Amino acid sequence: MNEQTIEKLLKAVKNDDISIANALKKMKSLPFEDIDFAKIDHHRQIRLGYPEVIYGERKTPDQIAQIAQKLLDKKSNILITRANEQAYGAVKTIAPEAKYNVIGRTITIEREHIVPPKSYIAIIAAGTSDLYAVEEAYETAKILGNHVKKVVDVGVAGIHRLFAHLDIIQNARVVIVIAGMEGALASVVGGLVDKPVIAVPTSVGYGASFGGMAALLSMLNSCASGVSVVNIDNGFGAAYSASIINHL
Amino acid sequence: MNEQTIEKLLKAVKNDDISIANALKKMKSLPFEDIDFAKIDHHRQIRLGYPEVIYGERKTPDQIAQIAQKLLDKKSNILITRANEQAYGAVKTIAPEAKYNVIGRTITIEREHIVPPKSYIAIIAAGTSDLYAVEEAYETAKILGNHVKKVVDVGVAGIHRLFAHLDIIQNARVVIVIAGMEGALASVVGGLVDKPVIAVPTSVGYGASFGGMAALLSMLNSCASGVSVVNIDNGFGAAYSASIINHL
Amino acid sequence: MNEQTIEKLLKAVKNDDISIANALKKMKSLPFEDIDFAKIDHHRQIRLGYPEVIYGERKTPDQIAQIAQKLLDKKSNILITRANEQAYGAVKTIAPEAKYNVIGRTITIEREHIVPPKSYIAIIAAGTSDLYAVEEAYETAKILGNHVKKVVDVGVAGIHRLFAHLDIIQNARVVIVIAGMEGALASVVGGLVDKPVIAVPTSVGYGASFGGMAALLSMLNSCASGVSVVNIDNGFGAAYSASIINHL
Amino acid sequence: MNEQTIEKLLKAVKNDDISIANALKKMKSLPFEDIDFAKIDHHRQIRLGYPEVIYGERKTPDQIAQIAQKLLDKKSNILITRANEQAYGAVKTIAPEAKYNVIGRTITIEREHIVPPKSYIAIIAAGTSDLYAVEEAYETAKILGNHVKKVVDVGVAGIHRLFAHLDIIQNARVVIVIAGMEGALASVVGGLVDKPVIAVPTSVGYGASFGGMAALLSMLNSCASGVSVVNIDNGFGAAYSASIINHL
Amino acid sequence: MNEQTIEKLLKAVKNDDISIANALKKMKSLPFEDIDFAKIDHHRQIRLGYPEVIYGERKTPDQIAQIAQKLLDKKSNILITRANEQAYGAVKTIAPEAKYNVIGRTITIEREHIVPPKSYIAIIAAGTSDLYAVEEAYETAKILGNHVKKVVDVGVAGIHRLFAHLDIIQNARVVIVIAGMEGALASVVGGLVDKPVIAVPTSVGYGASFGGMAALLSMLNSCASGVSVVNIDNGFGAAYSASIINHL
Amino acid sequence: MNEQTIEKLLKAVKNDDISIANALKKMKSLPFEDIDFAKIDHHRQIRLGYPEVIYGERKTPDQIAQIAQKLLDKKSNILITRANEQAYGAVKTIAPEAKYNVIGRTITIEREHIVPPKSYIAIIAAGTSDLYAVEEAYETAKILGNHVKKVVDVGVAGIHRLFAHLDIIQNARVVIVIAGMEGALASVVGGLVDKPVIAVPTSVGYGASFGGMAALLSMLNSCASGVSVVNIDNGFGAAYSASIINHL
Amino acid sequence: MNEQTIEKLLKAVKNDDISIANALKKMKSLPFEDIDFAKIDHHRQIRLGYPEVIYGERKTPDQIAQIAQKLLDKKSNILITRANEQAYGAVKTIAPEAKYNVIGRTITIEREHIVPPKSYIAIIAAGTSDLYAVEEAYETAKILGNHVKKVVDVGVAGIHRLFAHLDIIQNARVVIVIAGMEGALASVVGGLVDKPVIAVPTSVGYGASFGGMAALLSMLNSCASGVSVVNIDNGFGAAYSASIINHL
Amino acid sequence: MNEQTIEKLLKAVKNDDISIANALKKMKSLPFEDIDFAKIDHHRQIRLGYPEVIYGERKTPDQIAQIAQKLLDKKSNILITRANEQAYGAVKTIAPEAKYNVIGRTITIEREHIVPPKSYIAIIAAGTSDLYAVEEAYETAKILGNHVKKVVDVGVAGIHRLFAHLDIIQNARVVIVIAGMEGALASVVGGLVDKPVIAVPTSVGYGASFGGMAALLSMLNSCASGVSVVNIDNGFGAAYSASIINHL
């Protein structure tokens, strides 16, 4: 907001073009009125350069299909996470080219292909039981326009397995590390690369894993620098961040 | 010591400017030393391209100074975090050019200037009480070779203050968001930029903030995509990750 | 039954329109009944000026219908929360005008219309997945005699959506803010209005949301003054408090 | 500075008692200043109708005094919470009329008296050990322009003590209930009044009170409708909300 | 153990009646050998004067019936807690007089009637949703030989309901208080009686009740003296303790 | 409340002895007016038959002495818990016969000797580090008029030590078990006696004892029936309950 | 890594046999290149001398059978934990000699008999409801080649039952203690033997057992030395450790 | 005192070198003494074959010295953990040969040398800040009669440091792994050895390490088999278990 706005208002008061009560009311909302909404109210896709994402949990297949339809009308690419097969059935009726990843529980509709940068995102996972998060991350990274390489079942209990893939890990532009139980993989990988590492704790485990809490705390306390963390099982979020970095 | 140093050495070998025996002697004294003698990880600097970091907590001034001395012998830049004034006193006797940031509790010794990339890191903080984490992040980012812009006291309770700095935030290459209490700033900023956001929960608050737990959980559950999180009060870790991204 | 009913009764006594014996009989059957016979708190309606509320969780349809029948005999308005469709079936047989809100899981029976004050309650929610709490709050506020305006899907990740509704929010007499995940909306709204804000954390989220804990802690630590909080998913409680304030 | 000041200014403009240029100059120095220069939120006072609040924790006496000085220049009333005696000493040098509440740890400077509404706020506390929160709430309510009545040491273990003050409680416009340990007082009071109840859990207790957690959870789960809750020990927040309600 | 045992052993050594190796072995287990097993190894029923209790959770109907059969052979009275209807079916085939309490989920078989003391146990519960714990406590107290009086639905939100039953509460020899949500009833009752109060937190509630945690912490922090607490939903344990006290 | 009260009120309305407005107001407070306050508002000492207790934590020596003075004026016996030596100094000036237990941090003033029942309370503690809770319980039990026997340092890691005192434990009328760390002693003792057992978890321990949480949970989950639990370190509460039982 | 490797590299640079860029890249991975992978990359069975283990949770019968088939091709013994009957059905088709333990939910295939040492492992459990963990431990210990003795239902509430089996416990080479609820058995057994004790907390219990948390904390805080702990319900892990010790 | 002492005594009895009365008197003064007089568990040493341990926390120097004196009278070796320098001062006056480990905070008095087995215990620690636990474990293992090898500062963030010591780790008979922060070292080491691994989480860390909770949970959820865990910072307990195993 600049002086002109207030000056105009004061003149209007002086000239009886506006009542004092109304002028007062206008001033109360001033600090927001002067926000350049052009700066912030663009459609998310334009602003962030990305497809539209629908979080499928707690939504009926019908609701998901309806939201998808609206977005398709705008020619958006679409990513639906946490989607079950019923949702896929409903979406396929309006977008036959929709693809479903059973393990990752994602539906993707690609209307406009994004040319990925040459560099790739590496997704490293401790065990096969973490695959659901791996696939969610994978599909997210793909629809956002990225090359992706996956390395699964390289948990630290057999650390030679990890070293066998050092090349893939060290040559990535950004690395996603996915692990449940004690989540130690994030620290080990973090110590091996000079690239950003995004860690995804999973809810794989039982007892004192407390639904992924153990892995989460472990990753937050990583002794390796350069590791940041997303929510438990949040493969989508990790890939989203990784994609932003890969497109920088 | 960084890649350039080794590269230069290799070139000297190639050009016969140095004998293989002498080159070997020079190299032996650094990254490999840790295998034969101590375990100070000189090699980390080469592998990860960064100066050496000393975590000052629970270390006496003497211990800190001794470790610093060894690293200085290798011509490393040095960052000491969580350092008190006594530690600074001890370090200054061996490195008079060492600088102390009282608020951030960091000591930095810059022996070799790293030319920063043109892009900058933005550090956004909710309140003046978060300054200790801001300064730790700032000093870390600087010693790692980055331009940094700070915006402090823009908590969401007066959101127009944040909007007044939209330009700085949106033009950064990577954004660090620092907030205590409910940590809502991370989500709001995350929704405004298309750059990687690294969130630092702080222990600022009382009662049900549980030492930063409230802000930490808040940030992990951010409804804005592209936000990853580091440990409570870990300004260093956020800046380390941000610097890696800024140097990509 | 409310104050008016008793007042009318007292006037009838005064005017000899009813014998003291009959008036006594009428009165005995309500607020005092709970002391002599059952413990259904009819008196609450008089004391607090509100309809009777039945918490439907862990109650069979039959139990709910029986309690409702007793209250209907006293001509009370009735609100049943956390009710499933079976409960609605049972209630409809005794009160065909009963209405069921599928999303909010409420049954309402309005026997006596309460004239609402002119001011209104605003219910602001972060996402469509919070609708179950929104509808519970909405039905509660309506049956308690209030005008209500709802604004849904204005989470802070796209904050321009919120600003588009500033008028509705700032002109309300009291504002209910409903959000899951990190619950940041409460702080942002709290900073925009000079009216009481009642925050409802929801269990929407996963992983480190810990069933709504993240949003709850976030709201309790709100950096915005004037925000008070109710239990997770407690749309009813928020609307109840809001209604009291709106009727002041 | 409050609405009246601006209203007066607008009237002066209208009546040609002040030139537009001068009015503009006067206005520029307050709410808008925060956008151009500092970030002290002068506008908040206008927008929310309240004095400026400084959270004293983790701030040095000097810092507090400096912030207070800036606010005094704008003729704001000032409330400083969590302030120690050193802070009071520093503030008194710039505002000799400043008052210190030792128990509540508040400093108040009243430059402009706010005429309170006729209705009052009741502050009800379980024990004398909760006094620190009582006094913080009391001073907050006073500086915000309210009549306040305090009832202390009426914990539920001797419930007749509470009943002895039913009149004060039931005739208030809004009731603040402050209790530590098991926090049961909130539920009992909530069942006795038809006014909004704002509950403040305190950290009074030991062992399984976990720093106020027990009282907090207790109050959030109150079986009495119409009770909302603020952070542990947050007497300020409760009074702030109560004042908003009392001024409606 | 007394000296005689050791003396005898030493003599045996001296007389070569035992080898040194064997004597040494005997001595190693001495401190336990000398326990008067008569003191501790009586059948539980004799030692504690009570029937046998079977915890039915995680046991199949067959397993329960088999254990019951063994105990019936010894003419024990039997109490089976957390039993479903299938378990009841299986037990009835071996003990047709077995009784099932659907709400309390208990099976009782009374082979030998215990004459109860004249004093009675009062069971006070906050709401009808706590009935499952009430009935478990009731059946336990009955089979253990006690008179019991129940007062249900007297939660503190309508505290006059509680006062209407003061006589029953104050004349009991021991009082069991059962409540979920915030569990405030225990403190209020604890302040009204001069008898032992045993509090049972229940898992009734949602959100921040965290499965009964809120009520549990509340009761442990009761400001009323003379209140002790058992596990969440442990109606059995409370009645067991109460019965011991009632039989003193 | 009985019919007569209402009948009288109705007659007064009829005879114009009271306005309808006033009658209405009276009826709103009826459920409380009819409480027999004689039943609940006796002085605590009379009602419960016990001395007055002052919780010394967070109170200054002066405050404690003042409260003590008031109670002494009524000839009460006095127990002050969590008192430091300064408090004792202040109390001794007004009651020279006051006694201080350094370990238990209690001050006791006995003005009127209570003749204890013949039966005794046994206090059993796991280790010498639990002595502070033992002594608090001991002094409480003594001032409340009880014989007490103490058995200390009989933790389950050397269970023969416990058996050496079986007589004292089994002959008590009520047993208090005090233990920190894993609190296993409560279960073992609970299995050995047919008397009420009140368990006191202590904060003795480190690491995963989480300030007594481990012992608390352990005791609440005791596999031995007849064990009830009080707050962590609450020797006072256990002795208070035990005394009530011992005086039955 | 030794000097020769570097020397050779430097010579290659000098002789233009390798580019500087490639030499630099090689040096960056040096610290790992020189790892003697023979030391760490053996097949797990060879390295640890044990059969292959498949964690059956979250795996389909097909996946389990496929993995088993691959391992059988290598003639490994196989242990599948957390397996349901469907998995057993699938495994039996490829290995008819496979055995299923219904309670322990394990499938074992023994292709090569391991001769057990003479000493045995004792498995001690508090209650019959802990049997699922007992059997998992038992099957694990057997397939790993151990003699095992089981003692079940010796919880501390009836401690004489435990003493009746002192011989079995004290003569074992290593003792596994399995208990839910308060887990006190670990401390009592730990105090009775001079052998390693491995404690397994189980999720048996309800309410404040918090899924085994109470037993876990209890065991970690054991006052008996020589007790170490594994995850909740982790019978497999305890037996694995015990087997390693038994084979030393 | 150990078995040899008793054996010698028995031989003396057999050979008439001592009268039965005198032998009895000698024996009475030790393992049985605890039953009659004090409760210091002399018998433990015989039963478990180990010196006496005093937990120094919360004990005054005087108390520690007194207990030590009694034990010295029995010629026991003594280990005092969590001891400060004052305690050492007091102990040295009665046992001048006592040794103090400043970092480990242990006092040791070795009256009788235990010949260690040939195999050794390896203590592996992540960082220098874990040294306090390392030294506590070291002193414990030494006084219990063991060879010990220490490897410190081999955290997983620079995993090549760990590999440099593979020989020491893999040749130990039992391995103690000590780590704070995320505790990942336990899983990595667990995957490298076929020996029992005992993990010690330390409280080293900040923020979401929650006093060692993160490392504790991490170690309990280790994906490597054969890892068992002791309490946070419990170097003593780990070494005690390790020593038992090393002496098998």
TrEMBL record, chains A, B, C, D, E, F, G, H:
InterPro entries: P2CMN_synthase_LarB, PurE_dom
Protein name, entry field: Nickel pincer cofactor biosynthesis protein LarB
Classification via SMART domains: AIRC
Gene3D superfamilies per record: 3.40.50.1970
Superkingdom of source: Bacteria
Domain PurE: 119-248
